[in-house]
Each structure stands twice: as C-alpha cells, then as structure tokens.
Amino acid sequence: MARLELQGLCKGWDFPVIDRMDLTVEEGEFFVIVGPSGIGKTTLLRLVAGLEAPDAGKVLVDGRDITALPPYRRRVAMTFESYALYPHKTVAENIASPLRARKTDAATIAKRVQSVAELLRIDHLLDRKPGEVSGGQKQRTALGRTLVADPEIFLLDEPISHLDAKIRHELRQQFHTLEDLRKVATLYVTHDYAEALSLGDRIGVMGSGGLVDVGTARDLFERPANLFVAEHLGQPTINVIPARLESHADVLHLRANQGDLLLPVDPARAHLLAARNDGAVTIGLRPQFVRPADEMPAGSAQVTANVDLYEALGSTGILIADILGLRITALTSPERIFEHDTQVQLAVDTAALHYFDPRTGANLTLQTPGAGAATAMASSVASGISSRAEA
Amino acid sequence: MSEKNYRLVRTLLLIFLGLWTVLTLFPIYFKAITAFKSPAETNSTIPSFWPKEWHPENFVSVFAESSNFQSLVDSFVIASGNTLLSLFLGTLAGYAFARFPKQAGGENLAFWILSNRMFPPVAVLIPMFFLFDATPWGTDSRISLIILYLVFNMPLATWLMMVFFRDAPRELEEAAYLDGWTPLQAFMRITLPLVLPGMISVSMLCWIFAWNEYLFANLFVGTDVKTYTIVIPTFTHGSQTLWNLQMAFSLMAMLPPVALFILLRRYMVRGLSLGVVKG
C-alpha cells in the first residue's frame, strides 16, 4: 500500500535514455507506460526495481527515499519480459520464492501458493517445471511469483506481449479483476496501445528522454499532446497530412499539400488557428472519422478518391484510398466491398481533425491547462536532452 | 540426393566409422591382452593378438609391493584435491569475469590467466621445483602437486565456468533479488544449480589431467609420495621391460576415470553441449 514517486530521474549510457523524469503513481493506481521499443521503458522499471542505479534523481515510496536501497531490500515485485522463471524449480517453488526469501513458515507458504495458483488457474501445474508448461502458463507463474510477494510496488514489463492473441485477451481481462494489483501502485509497460488503453487508469506515452504525454485513455486519444502521441495510439494508424491553412470567403480552410483535398476547419477550433492563416500545419485524421460518404451524416465534407486496397476484417473494413497522390486510410462497415481502382466518395468528420505544428509536432488546438502543461513538458524534455548532452 | 547416392554415402560412412572404432579400441584391446601374457610372450618378435597362456596372477603381482596400491591412493587424493580447489577458484573467478568483467580486472586479466596454459610445461619445470622446494612441505608431498596442478587446471576451470555463467541468464538472478534474496543467496540457489552440469564437466577434465600427469610428478615426488604414473615405468627386471605388469597396472589405473565417467556421463553430455543449444 504505497504511492510511488520519481523525482528528476536520469539514466543514460552513451546517450540519455531517461531525462529528468517526474512521475507520481498513487496507491491503487494502474499506470501504463506505452511507447515504441527501445525507448527506455524497461530501463525505467529497472530503475524503480533497483536493478540499475540512476545517474541522478530519486525514487520514493510513500515519501521514503529508496534510491540507495539494493533490490532485495525494496518491497518491489517485477515480472520480466522473458518471465525469468527458475528452470530447475517447479511452478510451486517458483511462486514460493519470495515467501521463502522472507523465511515464511512452510504452512503459510503452501496456503499462499495454493490460493495464488487457484486465482491464476495454474493450481493443476504446481509440480511441473517451467519448461513443461505453455507460454501463457509461464506468464501466470511469473505473475503468481509477484502477487504472492505482497509488495508495495508492482512492475510489469510487457507481461502479455509474447502470448498469442487469444490468451493475451484473456489475461488482459484478468488484470482488470486482480484485486491485489488494484491495492498498490502499479507500473505496467507495454508497446501495445490497445493494452494501454484497456488497462491504464492513467497512461504515459514515452518518447525519447521520458514521458511526452500523460492522461487517461480518452485524454490521449482525443487530445494528444503532440503528433508522436497521436501516431502511437490507434490502429490503423492516424492519417498524417501535411497541409496549409487558407481563407476562403472568410472561412478558414485547410488544403493538403498533395492531392485535391480542401476541408473547412471546424468553427470551434478556427479561432485557435486563425493566427496561423496561410501557415503550414500537419493534420491528423483518424481512420474512423473518414468513411464512405453513405456511412456518414449528410452534409459532411466530401472528397472523391480512388480505391487502392481494401481489407475486410470481419468487424470492420479498412480502405486505403488515393486522392491524387495522397493516401488515406479509412474505416468502413464490414459488409462493404470495394474493387481496386474504382472511385469512392469519402466523407470527413472535420470536427475530429487534429492540428499539429509541422516543426515541433505540438498539438495546436489544446485548450485545457493540463494538456498545455504536457506540451510544455515535452519541449522541456527536448531541451533537457541537449543540455545534458553538453554536460 | 538420390536413393543410390544416399546408400553409397551411408555405406562409406559406416566403413569409415568402423575403421575409426577399430583404430581407437585396438590399443586398449592390446593393452588388455598384454596384461595377461607371460613376459616371454610380450617380447616375442611376432606379436600375438591372443595370449597363448593366460596369466591372471599378473594382476596380483603388481600389488606385491604395497606402495604400488598406495600410489593409486596418492594419485586419487592429489587429483581430487586439485579438482576441488580448481573448481572452487575457477567458479568464483569465472562468475566474476562473466558478471563483473570491469571490476574483475577486465579481458586482460582473463587472458593472462588463460595464457598460463599456453607455455610448454617443461619450461617451468626446474624453476617450479626450486620454488616448491623452498616451501615448508617441500616437493615430495601431496599438497605440492595439488597446488602445482592449479597452474594448468585453474585457467581451464575459470574459462569454462565463465562461459557457463555467461549462458546462465542474468535475469534469473535479478528476479531472485526482487524476490528478496541477497546476491550470495541468489548465486547459491539459482545460478549455481544452473551451471552444475558445467561444473561436473569441468571437474572431469581437471581430474583426468591431474590423474594422468607424469612430467612434474616424476621430478617432484617419489619417496614419501608416489603417483601411479611414476610407478608404471618401475616394472622392469634388469634391463628387461615387464610389459605385462606395466599393462596390468595401467589397466587398473584406468578403472577410476572410467567409473567416474560412466557415473557422471549424463551430466557431462549436458555440460559439454551447454551453450551449443540455448535451452
């Protein structure tokens, strides 16, 4: 039962990986960190676990500074991406390991192992060695070993990324229902945005140097701090369209640099962008907001496109369309059929467009102070990298 | 490959393997039958490949001198003592080089240790004699050979153990730390069991080297302590070599390593193949 605080945490090798990161994860909060591979997510967990020493900054649990404590003196449990199960010990012995380290008596160990194993539905495998169980069962064993430890902080490193889709979904649901995880501060690392959106009470998107945006799933999806966040969340990936702002009959429009695409700017945002009239912007358009015209309300902005590729995926269809050289990914209802190289009329929900600064990637239409701070943080991260490089 | 070619290659392979087997087994066979021959038969101009008369009493007469049996005991103690010491030091050093290469002195120190195996042993024969002669226990003692053989066995043990430790995932130790085990506990409970097959292979290699060593033993010991390797050449009668007794005695000396090998071969194979296939 504790809250986790990171203060000005720094870690780098030849280059800074984590740069002056501040983060507070409250007791009971499930905080998901999502980001591309190799960006330093695992390094962050290792810093919290004490497996790496930070170059600067502090790790605090309930206000206690644990930065100098070795991992075996911290009450932090971590699952490894590789599971790290002891191959020469049985599933039961693996799960019991943290209890044995604390010299718990045998009867209590047996009881705790049994109850955790039942919770994770691996109680029939307790006598097997890790080499004799499936990937999903290995993951549950690794999870059991952390759950039984009754730690103050939970660290989960890509716990379900390497499992097949069906088991992944099942375990994802299980994370929602594990009471033990809901009582402590949890840091959960993944590169899968769907996992992040599904599980996180709050989500931090990690870019180079640290977190570039923090918020709830809805915040990040609807009001991304910058283009990096928008591109990282969502499947299919958001359409990124370089464009210019233009005034036509006193109404602000945007014109794509390539292809014949001219769209009116949503009046609710026009005043925020007016100062950029005649300036370049980068447009973010999520595929679910551009659809065949007959699937959208009448009066939506329309454009004619050429069908390049169509994938019917059962619950949805993905249409890759070409507007005179501009490729757009659109979603359709699943029963549609589109032939290659035929014409299609697409409609765009202009209220759902995102406007980014083409140079910095910052979202130009954020109004909430919180999100503004996130943008400021992103730029401070960028400046932090350069100042550290000089040092 | 066509069916015909396949059979041809297979046949040639079998012939080759058959010849190879005969080639390697023949000396052992000849040693075994020589041990049963009479001295006269061993010296006949045309060698016989089957004894004309059987003399099993050869095996009794080699132990007529009680110090001959004692030499096997001495060899066993020296080989085992040296193996335990090599393994202990090699395991600790190998772990240090595998996990903390910088703190442990880096590649240079590791290569220096290995380089001790690269010079011809005879080059240090005389200096080593004077060096050990100056110690309180002198040269003619078990402890002198136990320590001396470290020169050859510790580099081997260190390097092989280093490779085995590198193959043992570091994450398992880290997981153990997070479970609450101290580094020493994690080493003993998690890492050491993982490299156990490797340790057994290494100890076999060390043991066999120390068991068979002749050059240094011949110079160092011989009065208070004898190894079996320096006893074998003593089976002579005047200027005549008693081949039958030499073979009988060396056949007896083959038994301990063969027995050890059979006992531990399951681990040996696993140890020697560790690192080839990641498990």
**Biggest sheet of chain B, in brief?**
2 strands, antiparallel
The number of domains of chain B = 2
Number of helices of chain A: 11
Number of strands of chain A: 20
| Topology pattern of chain B, helix = H, strand = E | HHHHHHHHHHHHEEH
Oligomeric state, counting identical vs distinct chains: heterodimer
N-to-C terminal Cα separation of chain A, in Å?
38 Å
Explained architecture:
Chain A is an alpha+beta fold. Chain A folds into two domains: 4-231, Rossmann fold (3-Layer(aba) Sandwich); 233-365, OB fold (Dihydrolipoamide Acetyltransferase, E2P) (Beta Barrel), CATH 2.40.50. Chain A is built from eleven helices and 20 strands. Chain A has helices at 41-49, 91-101, 106-119, 135-147, 165-177, 179-182, 193-199, 217-222, 227-232, 267-273, 369-390; strands at 4-12, 16-25, 30-34, 56-61, 64-65, 76-79, 153-157, 185-190, 202-207, 210-215, 239-248, 251-256, 262-264, 280-285, 290-292, 301-312, 317-323, 326-332, 343-348, 354-356. Chain A has a six-stranded mixed β-sheet, with helices on both faces. In chain A, strand 12 and strand 13 (262-264) form a beta hairpin. In chain A, helix 2 (91-101) crosses helix 3 and helix 2 (91-101) packs parallel to helix 4. Chain A is elongated. Chain A starts with a strand and ends with a helix. Chain B has 279 residues and is an all-alpha fold. Chain B folds into two domains: 3-34; 65-273, MetI-like fold. Chain B is built from 13 helices and two strands; from the N terminus they run H-H-H-H-H-H-H-H-H-H-H-H-E-E-H. Chain B has helices at residues 3-34, 39-42, 58-61, 66-99, 106-115, 125-133, 142-148, 150-167, 170-179, 183-212, 215-220, 228-231, 243-273; strands spanning 236-237, 240-241. Chain B has a two-stranded antiparallel ribbon. In chain B, helix 8 (150-167) crosses helix 10, helix 9 crosses helix 10 and helix 10 runs antiparallel to helix 13. The A-B interface holds A 49-51, 70-72, 74, 76-78, 80, 82, 84-88, 97-98, 101-102, 131, 145, 149 and B 169, 171-172, 174-183, 185, 190, 193-194, 279.
